[in-house]
Amino acid sequence: MSIMYARVSVLKTLLHLRFGPATIKKHYNVKRNNYAIVDDKDVNFFGSLMGAQYVLQDAGTDDLLCYNVDFLRSVRGNSKLVLRPGTTQEISEILKYCNKRHLAVCPQGGNTGLVGGAVPVCDEIILSMARLNKVLNIDEITGIASCEAACILENFDAKAREKGLVVPIDLGAKSSCHIGGNLSTNAGGLRVLRYGNLHGSVLGVEVVLANGTILDLMSNFKKDNTGYHLKHLFIGSEGTLGIITKLAILCQTVSSSVHVAFVGLNSFDSVLKTFLNAKRYLGEILSACELIDERSLDASVKQYNLKSPIENYPFHMLIETSGSNAIHDSEKLNFFLEHCMNSGDILNGTVTNEVNKIQEIWKLRELIPTALIRDGFCFKYDISLPLRSFYDIVPVLEGHVGKLAKRVCGYGHLGDSNLHLNVSCEEYSRELYERIEPFIYEHTAKLKGSVSAEHGIGFTKKNYLKYSKSSEAITMMREVKKLLDPSGILNPYKVLN
């Protein structure tokens, strides 16, 4: 048995043993577009191009399960073919061939997305990026790092840290997500407050267009004002305009002084006041400000047998500082905490600069997403809301779904107004699903929020794009798609209807 088939077999078994086939739901009805159907000639061509060991066919009913099912087990495709190219040139030849044959393609990275953007909807060919995983160069002087798209974020960051640098994005899924997928969805993560969105950090990309054209937009300069910044078309385009194969990103220097405070609060009003004071008193060293409500913390503590350093409160905040002078940073943080406790906003808390203790506190936040999945099934929503109304939607939704839900909770990046709203239940419920959607998006639109803060639109949100984009903007998006992918072979059924 080849290594590739062994991997598929193991993952398939884990999916069935842990979740059971009945938990994988296909709660949609999509009419297949008029694409060609893969035949033996196509398979033979791909095998001759890459080697037969990198062409995975559906020899049995579930051989491709791990490629066809998304992370949340809520969307499932029916692809019969997975291609695993190893170079940009191979991807170019694959797309050139598929474009001529009118074969639909679904690019896939680490498959950690939450909106069904990385799995096929029908029988699209899955283009796995997993083999394009090389770190190409890291320059400690300029801070510029370049790599192939399938570098796992945690591995890429580890290589950067060897040079005293840090990749300016950090996600809970960092041990399995691909940096190229992060770009394709314009992922935000835990430290957007410090580093900003990827649009501001990415210096250049290499992209393969639908017709096989290799577009070299790589750059080694922060300032390169030579015409249209085409790279921005592909950051956040979710593989619908082109496939990112390489990237160059500006990394920051590793902070020599990191402190984390974990505090408890009684009201969201106190949360807002504490956030304002964090910006006021911590200023340039503030690197993360996360909100965790009572039910979210309860999920990670119980499902992973963790221990919170303080007792449970209605709200918790994880505040991180990153600087270069431990004494200076400690003084600022202690002054901030003393001020907030004297005002009565912070009721209790702990602060540390010990690496192990910092990691244990961050676990409480980073493990929430998967802890909620362990409830049975979890509907996840990634939205941006005006900060004053950031948490109001949680009790509103809780009242709307009633006893259909096991748990309704909210946590997320307070520093950039990104709420992760979760509704868990014992098992997938169509009734609960229809109770949540489109209500959640209609309510978000009323508040002038965004239906997607950092996970993209993918398949599951494409009908709700209208709540955050004007009809004129959506029309222009369609025109850009038609220009770059006139045959519509790249990641069809995603983002746009």
TrEMBL record:
GO MF annotation terms: (R)-2-hydroxyglutarate dehydrogenase activity; FAD binding
Q: Which domain of life is it from?
A: Eukaryota
Q: Which InterPro entries match?
A: FAD-bd_oxidored_4_C, FAD-bd_PCMH, FAD-bd_PCMH-like_sf, FAD-bd_PCMH_sub1, FAD-bd_PCMH_sub2, FAD-linked_Oxase-like_C, FAD-oxidored/transferase_4, Oxid_FAD_bind_N
Q: Required cofactors, per record?
A: FAD
Q: What is its main location?
A: other
Tell me one Pfam family matched here.
FAD-oxidase_C
User: Catalysed reaction per UniProt?
Assistant: (R)-malate + A = oxaloacetate + AH2
Enzyme Commission code(s) on record = 1.1.99.39
Q: What subcellular compartments does it reside in?
A: Peroxisome
The FAD-binding PCMH-type domain extends over 75-254
Report if keyword Flavoprotein is assigned: yes
Keyword annotations for this protein, in alphabetical order, are:
FAD, Flavoprotein, Oxidoreductase, Peroxisome
Q: Which Gene Ontology terms of cellular component type are present?
A: mitochondrion; peroxisome
- In this entry, which stretches build a coiled coil? none
Q: What class of enzyme is it?
A: oxidoreductase
Write out the similarity annotation.
Belongs to the FAD-binding oxidoreductase/transferase type 4 family.
Q: How does it assemble?
A: Homodimer.
Q: What does this protein do?
A: Catalyzes the oxidation of D-2-hydroxyglutarate (D-2-HG) to alpha-ketoglutarate. Also catalyzes the oxidation of other D-2-hydroxyacids, such as D-malate (D-MAL) and D-lactate (D-LAC). Exhibits high activities towards D-2-HG and D-MAL but a very weak activity towards D-LAC.
According to UniProt, the name of this protein is D-2-hydroxyglutarate dehydrogenase, mitochondrial
The species this protein belongs to is Glossina fuscipes
